[in-house]
Amino acid sequence: MNIYTLRQNYRRQNAWGLLASIDLKFCNHNLTQSPKDIRKFVDEICRRIKMKKYGPLYLKKFGESSLEGYSAIQFIKTSSITVHFDDKISDRAFIDIFSCEFFDPFKAKEFSQKYFRAKSARMKILIRR
């Protein structure tokens, strides 16, 4: 699927929103453990997919043993962006972007993979109606 086909399907289904779930593996460990870099990522992804932030970023490292890692949530004018990092197994990142306004999830995936220097990336897209 490409952005043009996705946009047509979105319009044809009279969609309420779009969800992109991006899974990254083997990210740069230093980037996924840096609050400064995580904040910069959220700022930049909002800019790249043309979403306006609503309120402050909530960023916290929590969990226990193998489930510990940073998580972040940024409300946007049209919904939210959430990011979860797993620094114990394969330096993984899980990014969910949901918006009631159409955006380009392919740009989001490409930027996320480059930013965190992930060796692999996959994405699932869901049109919400």
Automatic annotation (TrEMBL):
Any GO BP annotation: spermidine biosynthetic process
Cofactor(s), by name: pyruvate
Gene Ontology molecular function: any one: adenosylmethionine decarboxylase activity
Keywords, comma-separated and alphabetical: Autocatalytic cleavage, Decarboxylase, Lyase, Polyamine biosynthesis, Pyruvate, Schiff base, Spermidine biosynthesis, Zymogen
Pfam families: AdoMet_dc
Domain of life where this protein originates: Bacteria
InterPro entries: AdoMetDC_fam_prok (IPR003826), S-AdoMet_deCO2ase_core (IPR016067)
Protein name: S-adenosylmethionine decarboxylase
